[in-house]
Amino acid sequence: MTGFVELDVRPILRAGGEPFGKIMETVKNLPQGQGLRLIASFKPTPLLQVLGSQGFTHQAREIGGGDWQVDFTPGSAAGKAPQAAPARPATEGNWPAPIQELDNRLLDPPEPMVRVLAATESMAPGEVLAALLCREPVFLFKELAKRGHAWRGAFEPDGKTYRLLVRIGGTPGEAA
Amino acid sequence: MLAIPGATLSRWTLAYFAAAVAFLLLGEALMVLGFGYPIAGLRAPQTLILVHCITIGWLSLLMCGALFQFVPVLVAGPIYSNSLPLPALLLILGGLALLIASFLQLAGVLPPLPAVFLGASLLLGAGFLLVLWTLGRTLAAAWPLNLPAQFVSIGLASVAATVSYGIIFTLGFGGYSRSPLLLGIQAQGLPLHVSAGLGGWLTFTAIGVSHRLLSMFMLSPELDGPTTRWTFRLGTLALAILVGAGTIVVAAGGGPGTVLVVAGITGLACLALYGRDVLRLYRQRVRPAIELNSRMAAVALAHLAFATLLLSACAAAGVVRQYIGPLLFLIAFGWLSGLGLAKLYKIVAFVTWLECYGPVLGKAPTPRVQDLVVEPRAARWFWLYFAAVDVASLCLLLEAVPVFRVAAAAMLLASAGIALELVRTRRLANVGEELRLPAGAQQPRLLFTFVGN
Prior knowledge:
The structure holds two protein chains of two kinds.
Chain A: E1 4-8, H1 10-14, H2 20-28, E2 35-40, H3 45-52, E3 56-64, E4 67-74, E5 100-103, H4 111-121, E6 128-133, H5 138-146, E7 150-155, E8 162-167
Parallel strand pairs in A: 1-2, 5-6
Antiparallel strand pairs in A: 2-4, 3-4, 6-8, 7-8
Chain B: H1 13-32, H2 45-75, H3 85-106, H4 114-140, H5 147-173, H6 180-188, H7 190-218, H8 226-251, H9 257-283, H10 292-317, H11 320-357, H12 375-398, H13 401-426, H14 433-436
């Protein structure tokens, strides 16, 4: 029987705050074998995906007044230390050197995104892809999150080239 | 809501676009039928119906739909709510229907019923307030704003001003306002309503959005230099003069003439800088061959330049009042609608592609965005549209009403042709059978977008 750590984010939401960081921190610190019981003022659909990609299964039910309770149970793949949250830029830890470099700066949108996603399909978990882009790939992030990959990205000092690193998901993250 | 960096697709943008195009076709059909200006006077109730079908029904819904999709891209953050745009759309549509009923009362077609004026004000006010709330919260979450988002925020402030003036007028027509201040605004405020709407809301927002869209689709350098910053400052100043000083002057019972001149000169400087930036965008583009949407946007921009020159010349000669009809027609159809149709053509293809093929990219062969459209076929409709607008504007200038109606019919035909191309894009009708729906891809619906899941 899985025990649950309860997190009620309704006060954060009511205060106009942003519970994502708190949720991911709680997930990261879950004791072995424990699940997360999340209470929110709406059905947190994007989160279902994010945690799903980390191996959690969920059971969501409305508890009245528009509020939802979602129980996330760690699956066999979800260990004590989930990999860097794939749904946001990963900042911690050292990543291996990229095994592939793409220069997508002169491609018409959405071709840069197509090439990055095509490349990730042929790579093994844990491997890193680097890509140069001419702008922040806002639509790509969602797609990477859905596929369980982590990324880091920033503009180079020239302010014109955006360098994106994508680490293929599917294995526990390396030591931070 | 849960913040995953990056933008997602807007659920109801396509519904806004569909309603907008329907109102464009309706407005053009009214012109073909000889309803409103130029057969009726500029301030006739019939003309007011026509004008609001175009400005609220077509241009504002188009702009709102585009902003729900585009503001999250501008700020690289999620939309505040992907559900609120639907009630906002329904409120605006209901409000517009009541507004049209109000004007029909003024025309004597419908029996007097003051509650309709109140209802129109409430529904339109609530609808636009919901739009402002959704976009405003999205922008606020991304503070401090980048330059294109700053343009949008001033555009949103302008729509608030435009709608406020409109509500004051509507309540006045319904006999609800007694206050001398409001009656002053009602008596002299029309130029403020028109300038804040066409200039502040539609044009200034389009300027901010076009900076980014043009550079994105032509691979030109991003604009954030001093010219662009001054475009923003001068435009903001012009609108502040217009709405701030203008409201005070007319509420005090004065005429807005001087305020319009000062705001107009400031706005002219803003447009001149914008013109310089646009030329740079086109000249410094990395792609030598540009897509239809960028070519047609250039034609619309040329119409803006021409309309601006014409308006300035008329102002210098003191004959603006005499030619205001053709001038506003050129701005509404040559510039705003032309740009709107051009960008609509690209945005519909882009969001349809992203919705349908995003989930399977890299996993299965997918068509390119350009495979969703057939540009040569659409190009003919676009050229017909712009030619018809030019002929129609000339007819208004020369007061050749019968020819104007023929030109309006050509505009209607061309717009319907473009609308049909949009439907074909949405239905993936231009994509070859073998690539149309790879495993895992979902047939897009006409009026809404599958989001996220």
